[in-house]
Amino acid sequence: MIKSGRFGIYNNKEYEVTGDMDGNTLLLTEDKDQIDESFRDKYNSGVYTKIIDKLELKEVYDIRTYAIYKGAKIQAEREENGMYFITTGDTALANQIGGFDMIDKFVYGKWIPKSEGELVEERKQIYPEIKEKKKSNR
What's the confidence (pLDDT) of residue 136? Predict the structure, then answer.
């Protein structure tokens, strides 16, 4: 599964985390095994949400998933039928690798077989914030 966005740990389970226009913190999931009666599918879309206090989150992090394809690290967007959909805003890279179509202004995309791309997930810790220890000159 390709993940991109903000995620957090709530009750020892990972959820996508977002906010609404009222400033609430929301958990999102499509996994019925992760929900209880406090989650709602407001729009009958299969996406369950729950409003929580952000302090209830054990940790929060951003995830970006990339495919290593022909030696380049390229954003992986989706996977379907044994394929990954990869995108880049780097025109030179898209031209160098070849086979990309312009899908938006300055954005190029293409489907590649899973066997040709290795997925790499990068996480950036947001909460609790990880700070580097400074060395003392004593």
Answer: 45
Q: Kindly give, in sequence order, each residue whose CB lies less than 8 Å from that of residue 115, ignoring residues fewer than 6 positions away.
A: none
pLDDT at 67: 98
Q: Please give, one letter per residue, the 3-state secondary structure of 9-36.
A: EECCEEEEEEECCCCCEEEEECCHHHCC
Find out whether 121 and 4 touch, Cβ atoms under 8 Å: no
What's the pLDDT band for 128 if we cut at 50, 70, 90?
Answer: confident
Residue carrying structure tokens 């206090």: 53
d(CA 16, CA 102): 29
100-122 exposure pattern, b = at least 16 Cβ within 10 A, e = fewer: beeeeeebbbbebeeeebeeeee
Alpha carbon distance 122, 67 (integer Å) = 11
By C-alpha distance, which of 49, 19, 44 is closest to 34? 49
**Full-model pTM:** 0.80
**SS3 for 56?**
helix
Q: What is the mean pLDDT of residues 90-96?
A: 97
